[in-house]
Amino acid sequence: METTNFKIVSSDSSVDWTGRKVTGAHNGTISIKEGNFILDNGNVKEGNVTINTSSIKILDITDPAANAQFAVHLASDDFFSIEKFPTASFDISSVKEISGNTFYLEGNLTIKDITHVAGFEAVVENNRNAITLSGKLVIDRTKYDIRFRSGNFFKDLGDTLIYNDFELDFNITAEAISEQSKN
């Protein structure tokens, strides 16, 4: 059995986020700080991804003052409490093959030091010395104490309601850093 450790190449990886509200949506990017995947015989067996929460960028608000104000709000305790929690992470605990190179990854998602099991479909392309992993993770923000303008916690929000689910679309590149043979 061949085991290979792949280290995430942050500069070649991207995470796009989308949050929706009654009157529209906001979107942007967030950076991967670090992570890795362990492959056995070419299949993902485990791994982890750490997100740098202070790297969140808003792409849909072009006015610099409004963009900066929104960024400060996302960093606040209403949302991600970035000063207290500078990272979020996903640790893979199980991998199930769906078909070909499509897998269901399940693991522990930690945001604001709160951990819940989460899962999603991912496509994994393996080029021996490098892999790419892409997919979409949908997160219920209220499970992580992000309640600002949630209909679950506040009444009569009207068109100021923010939907609980937000999405992370990711394209991750990782390169092999070591190979070991196991019997």
Automatic annotation (TrEMBL):
Lipid/polyisoprenoid-binding YceI-like domain location: 5-175
Gene3D superfamilies found in the cross-reference section: Lipid/polyisoprenoid-binding, YceI-like
Stretches that traverse the bilayer: none
Pfam families (alphabetical): YceI (PF04264)
Superkingdom as given in the UniProt entry: Bacteria
UniProt-listed InterPro entries: Lipid/polyisoprenoid-bd_YceI, TTHA0802/YceI-like_sf
Stated name of the protein: YceI family protein
Gene source species: Flavobacterium hydrophilum
